[in-house]
Write a structure and sequence with these properties.
The chain is an alpha+beta fold and 350 residues long. Among the domains are: 166 residues, no CATH class; 66 residues, 2-Layer Sandwich (Herpes Virus-1), CATH 3.30.40. The chain is 32% helix and 17% strand. Helix 2 runs antiparallel to helix 3 and helix 4 runs parallel beside helix 6.
Amino acid sequence: MRTIDPLKRVAIRAALRIHDHLAGTGRLKGLATLPTSQWDDTRGLIGRLECSLARGWRAASDSLLLDLDYALRRLRTELDMCHANLPRATVAPQLAPPGEIVADILALNGEFDGLAIDLQEKLIEVQTEPIVLDETQLGSFRIVLSWELVGQHRAYEIIAQSPNPSNNDGDVTHPHVCDQLLCEGEGAAAIRRALAEGRLLDFFTLVHQVLGTYNPGSAYVQLDRWDGVACRDCGYHMPSDDYGICDRCENPLCSECSLCCRNCDRYICSNCSTTCEGCDANVCESCLQAVAGSGRLLCPSCFEQALEEESDDDPRSPEDNPPAPAARPTPAGAAAPSNSLCLGEAPVPA
C-alpha cells in the first residue's frame, strides 16, 4: 500500500480548503471594512496640532507633526491593504486548481525555512533568512498567511523573529513593517493577484522580495535614522551613543535644546522648564516658589529678594512702639533715689 508523505497529506487538506474559500462567496465578506479607527486618530491629531500652533507651543507642535506624519502613512497603508484585497470580480478568473495549490505548498518547503501548516487555525507560514538592509541587521521574519481572511481583511502578518526595532518606534521592525503590517508599495497589485488566484508560491516570494528591498520614500522609519534617537523638543536625530537627556523626565535632548535650570543647574527640556516671573530665567517647575498674596512663581533668588523688599516696606512706624522714658540724671553728690522709707517718715494710721 502506497503511503503519502505527512507533509503532502496536510498540504492536500489545506489546498482543498483554500480553494473552497477562494471560489466561494465568503471571500467577499467584509469588503466595506475601512480603517475608521486610524481615520479618527488622524483627525484627532490634526485638531491637537492646530490647537498647539495657535498657542505657540513650538516643541509640542513639532512632536505632533511627526505623529501626524506617521499616522497618515499608517492610514495610507491600511487603505492600500483594503484596496489590495478588493477582487476584480466575484470569482477569480484564473483560480488555481487544488493540485497546483498543493504543488505550491510543497515548493515552499524548498524555498523557505520553517514551513508550517495549521489546519485548525487556517494558517500557512514560512520563515525568511536574516535580512540586512544598508548594513542594518534586521533579523529573520515569519510570513504568516491566514487564508480565511483573503478578500476580507489584511490576510497576512510579518512577525520579526529576532527583533531589531527602530529606536524611535518599537512597532517598526523593518523600514516597511509597522505593527506586523507590510507596506507593499509597488508590489501591492501583484501580491493581491497572487492571493486572489491561489498562487501561494508567488505570494510568499513577492512578500519576501519586498522585505529584501528598501525604499526610503515609503519607509515608516528611514534607515539613516534607525539607530538614532530623536530629540524630545526639535525632533533632530542624534547618534544612539552620543546624546543628552533631560535630568527630570529623562527624554533625549540635543545640545541646542537643553536648558539649564538657574537654581539646581540640571539640564531640562522645554516640557520640564518654566520661566521665573521675576528674572525670566529658565527654572525647573520644582524649583519655583509661590509668593504669598500675589501668587507669583519665582526662583529661589527672586523669592528671597521679594521677601526682603516686603520686609523693607513694612507699614509699621517707630511711633507705634514708643521707647520707654529715659531716667532723669542724678545731680553730682546727691544720693541715689530710693523707694525705701526712713524711720519716722511712714504715715501714721488714723
